[in-house]
C-alpha cells in the first residue's frame, strides 16, 4: 500500500517495568530486576522514543495486598518506583515522548495532583499526561486511614469534581502573568493570578496553585473507564481513552458511544483519542506468535492462575483436571455474565485446557494481535479505517524482546504504509495527539 | 594551617531556584526565570557536586497566599517546581550529591510520603533525604479542605506519629525479600514482607509499602524545629538539624541542648549533624561583602520590606522616616520579645536606616558570614572546634555568582585546611554524613 496522507494511528506504551504480564519476569531474556533498575527503564523509553511513540504510560497501584499471598509471591507487578519520581527522572533522558502518570482522585489531594503534573509538564517541556483513576481496589483504602472503600458512584462523583478543581488550579496564572520586570520590581502581576475558592460537595480548595500554568496549558487527560459512569466521565473530560474491547465490533460500539457522548457534552469528538489496550506479539507466523504466548502464559504459576479462573467463572476451579478442557456442566453463578461466558467461549475458541485458560487469565487476557508485522498492520489498518480505534495502548508480552519486536518490526511496517509518523512534528504531547492547548478559563489571551 | 585528620564540616545548599532572598532576582547577573528553567538548576547542582557538597536541599511551600499581595507581586519565592519531580529530574544529571526534599506531615499521607522518598532513594542510588515539616503557614490549610490550621502541638503530635508510620513502611520488606527465583517462580518471599497495621491517635495505615526497602534503609531525616516540641522531635528523630541561631553562643546552647536530648532519648549524638543556616557572601574584603549585601537588600521593594519590619516590631512602621535610624521611643507591643529586641539591636549594631533594616528583614535576616575566604574559613573553624556546628546549611545571596564565589573561593580554602572533603568517600548521602544505615526493625539481617 502506498503512503497516504490519511489518518494515522496513535501509539502509547502501557508499562510496568518488567511487563504487565505476571509471568513475564520468568521469560527467557527478561529483566526480573527491572522494578528497581532505572537502567532498563531508560533503555525501554529511549527505544520507544526512537520509534516515535506518542507516550510512555505507567500503570500504578496503591497497595500490595490486592491479591492473595500465593499470587503476590509470584508477582512482579506491584512493587516498583512511584510514577512521578520515575517519569521525572525519565524526562531527563528523553526529549519528545509523552509521559503519562496514573494518579488517584480517591486517595490524593487535588492541590498535590495539580502541582505535580504541572511540575512534570514544566520539567519535560510539555509532555505530561494524567491518567485519572478512581482506584478500584478496596485494599488501597486501608493504606489511607479508611476502613471502607468509597463506593463506585461516590468515587466517580468525587473524580468529576476533582477534575474541575485540578484544571481550575492549572489556570491559576495567566500565561503572561510572570513579567519579571527587574526595573520596577514586579515579578508577577496580581491581576493575572486567579484564586479558585472552590467549595463543592466533596472538595474545598482555595488556590491559587503555586506553579505557573503548565506548558501545555493542561497536561493531557487520560482515562480508562468502561462502566457507565466511567464512559460518561471520559466523554466529558478525557482526551485519550484507554479501553479494553474484546474485538472490533465491541470496539466500534464503544467508540461510537464515547464519541457520541462527547458530542452531546458539547465537545469536539476529534479531541478524544480512543486507544484500545492490546497485547502485541510478533512472530514470523501466527503459529509462532501463538507459541510464544502459550510459553509466556505457562510461566504464570498455577497457584496464581487457578484463582484468576475461579474469579472469572464465579466458581472454585481448583478441582478441575488441569490438562482437560473446562467441564461442560459449569454451575450458574453470581459472577458477571460477560466474564463467565467470555471465559467459556475463549476456552472453546482456542481449544485451551483448564491450565492454559487459567494461565491466560492469570497472565494477561483481553485483546491481542499476534503474528507477522504485515498481518498485524493489516488488522490495525482495518480498526483505524472502520472506526474501532484512533490508535492503540500497546502492551508488551515481555521485555525487552517483546518491545524490540514491535519497534523494530511492526512500527517500520506501519510507517511504510503511512499509518504512523516517521518523526515527531511537534514538541509537546498535545501536538503528538493532535489536541489543542486549552484556553485559560479565567484569562483571555492578550494579543 | 596544615591539613589535619580532624573533624570536617558538612555543607548542604539550601535552595530556591532564584535564591531564598526576595530581592535576588533583580541582582545583576541573576536568572529571574530560574523558577521554571531546569537548565539553571542543573548547572547549580552540578557545581555543588563538583565542590563535594553533602546535599542539595530544596525549600518548599504549600500555598501562594502566604504573604500580602504587595509582597507577593515582588516575590519569586513561592512559584516554582514541586520538590519530588524536580529532585528526581536532578538525580539524573548528578551522581553523588544528596537530594533533600521538604514534605509536610500535616497535609499529606504517610503512604504517599514513604513511597515517594523510597522511590527517589532508589532512583538516585541512595541519595534521598526527607526534611520533615509540619507546615506553619495557615494559608496552606485552605488548599487542603480545611478552614482552620491544625494547632502547633497537634501538628507536632501528628508529625511524631507520621515519622513512626513512614519509617515503619520503609521497613515493609527485608533487604533480601526479593529473591526473583525464575526456576521456582518465587519473586518475593511472603515471610519477608511485614504488614504494619498501624492504628494510632492520628493515623491508621495498613501497609505494606509497595516498594522495596530504600537503598539507604531509610532516607536521611532532616528537621528544622527550634521551638520546644521542634527540638524534641529533632532529638528523637533527626539526623540533620537545620537551625537558625543568631550567633556562636546561641548556636552552642542549641547544639548542646539537642545533642543532650538525643542522648537522653537513647540515641548516639554523633548521629545528629547540627547545621546552622547561614548566608555566605564572599568579597575581597569584609567591606566589599557588606556592600554586596546592602545592594542586594536594596533590591527588596520597600512595600515588601516595610511590612516585614512592622511584623518584627509588632507596630506599624510605615510612618517612620525611611532614611533615618529607628525612632528611639518605640511602643511596647505584643510582638515576640526576641524578634523586637533583636531587630532594634541589629539596627543599632550595623547603624542601619529604617529602609536598610526593613530591607534586611524583607530579604534574608539571620546568621551571615561575610568577607574574604580565609576570614570566613577562620570563623567556620571556630564554630566547628567550639561545638557550635557540625557544618552549615549554606544559603547563597544570589545565583549564580553567590554560589560560584562559595564553590570557587571558600570551598578550596576549607579543603586546603582539611576542614572539608576533597572527594566523596562513599556513594550514599548517609555515607557523606557519617550516618549508619538503620536496621530493619522487623527483620534481622541474615548473614
TrEMBL record, chains A, B:
Residues 29-390 form the Luciferase-like domain. This is Nitrilotriacetate monooxygenase component A. Belongs to the NtaA/SnaA/DszA monooxygenase family. Residues 320-340 are annotated as: Disordered. It comes from the Eukaryota. It holds the Pfam family Bac_luciferase. InterPro entries: Diverse_substr_monoxygenases, Luciferase-like_dom, Luciferase-like_sf, NTA_MOA. GO terms for molecular function: monooxygenase activity; oxidoreductase activity, acting on paired donors, with incorporation or reduction of molecular oxygen. Residues 321-331 have a biased composition (Basic and acidic residues). Keywords: Flavoprotein, FMN, Monooxygenase, Oxidoreductase.
